Amino acid sequence: MAFLRARREATPPAVAGFPEWPRRRTPGLRRAELAAAAGVSVDYLTRLEQGRDRRPSTEIRTALADALSLSGDERVHLHRLLKASSGICAMSAPLSREVRPTVALLPARVGTERWRDPDGGELVLPYETLDLAGADDQRLVVYLPADVPAYPLRSRTAPRTG
């Protein structure tokens, strides 16, 4: 997989705890260094980079991401690449036409309010109300901007018009 190799080559050896020698034939980490830092064999890392092994465990993906100091977005990208290349789809089971009771309750918990923007116009704000466990008559209400005019106002409080 090109992404894994590119990240290995872009990672300075010091990030993984290895010394920076002045004469290196390859940029970034050597395969042996990354393999040692992630706790896998060089052969296994080679198979992953070449796309010959496309189903590493969660532990191995995490170890590689940690050794390469991947950001959250890069970790998600790595996971998606490996999942897509494995040919395994999470939707492999036939879809059911029945709606589970917990899913059927969701529309009842989501509401919509209309607020008047002080600068003019009306805001449509969908919200979800969640009952707080162990708290009598306490609820958490989460508002989400549903229309484009609401986006700049998400950090401001708009007066309610009922």
Polypeptide structure, described:
With 162 residues, this protein is an alpha+beta fold. The chain has 2 domains: 2-86, 434 Repressor (Amino-terminal Domain), CATH 1.10.260; 101-153, no CATH class. It has 6 helices and 3 strands; from the N terminus they run ααααααβββ. It has helices spanning 2-10, 31-38, 42-49, 58-67, 72-86, 101-109, and strands at residues 110-116, 122-131, 139-143. A 3-stranded antiparallel beta sheet has the order 1-2-3. Strand 2 and strand 3 (139-143) form a beta hairpin. It is elongated, with a radius of gyration of 25 Å.
The overall average pLDDT, rounded, is 76
SS class = alpha+beta
As a percent range, the share of strand residues is 5-15%
Uncertain residue segments: 88-93, 154-158
Distance between the termini: 55 Å
Q: Radius of gyration from the CA trace?
A: 25 Å
Strand tally is: 3
In the CATH hierarchy, the architecture of the largest domain is Orthogonal Bundle
Strand/helix succession = HHHHHHEEE
> What would the principal axes of the Cα set say about the shape?
elongated
Count helical runs.
6
Please outline what is shown here:
By secondary structure, this protein is an alpha+beta fold. The chain has six helices and three strands.
Write out key terms for the chains shown:
162 residues; alpha+beta; 434 Repressor (Amino-terminal Domain); 2 domains
Per-chain topology:
Blueprint: H1 2-10, H2 31-38, H3 42-49, H4 58-67, H5 72-86, H6 101-109, E1 110-116, E2 122-131, E3 139-143
Antiparallel strand pairs: 1-2, 2-3
